[in-house]
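Hi all, posting the design record for the shared folder.

TITLE: backbone redesign
STEP: 1 of 1
STRUCTURE INPUT:
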């Protein structure tokens, strides 16, 4: 996995860098735990507090999946309609430095689409259409191609 350090003047600079990628976001302080365990582990039992809001009724969490941002459709009308609902930069309000862990394209076939939420009519569960996907089970560290360590210059 390639490690890349990115310093931004503004949070808005990050979004175009992520175009076409599927990735997980966590405070960088959590990365050693991911390395030690060898994987990003699903939060199925709600053991860890999400910095992206209430995950008690998270669609992918309840399915035993790791939630990932899906920016493959970046810039499309559907993506634009929903992208503001949950952004990778929103956790900067709670931490100075974030880790973005990019999933290898070799593992895209295992991704679960948000569309299942719609087909199964799981309206009481939370998902961000067109922006969020789930990876069933653990995302092993060897499935990741990049570790982007992102910091805002003025923080």
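Okay, here is what came back for every position:
SEQUENCE:
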């Amino acid at each position: 996995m390639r490690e890349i350090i990115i310093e931004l003047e503004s949070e808005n600079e990050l979004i175009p860098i992520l175009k076409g990628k599927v990735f997980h976001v966590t405070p960088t302080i959590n990365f050693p735990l991911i390395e030690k365990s060898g994987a990003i582990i699903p939060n199925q039992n709600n053991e860890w507090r999400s910095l992206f809001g209430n995950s008690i009724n998270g669609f992918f969490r309840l399915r035993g999946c790791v939630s990932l941002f899906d920016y493959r459709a970046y810039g499309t009308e559907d993506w634009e309609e929903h992208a503001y609902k949950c952004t990778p930069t929103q956790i900067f309000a709670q931490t100075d430095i974030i880790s973005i862990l990019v999933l290898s394209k070799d593992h895209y076939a295992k991704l679960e689409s948000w569309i299942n939420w719609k087909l199964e009519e799981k309206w009481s569960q939370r998902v961000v259409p067109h922006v969020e996907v789930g990876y069933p089970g653990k995302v092993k560290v060897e499935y990741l191609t990049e570790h982007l360590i992102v910091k805002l210059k003025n923080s």
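COMMENT: The two ends are 27 Å apart (CA to CA).
Let me know if anyone wants the other runs.
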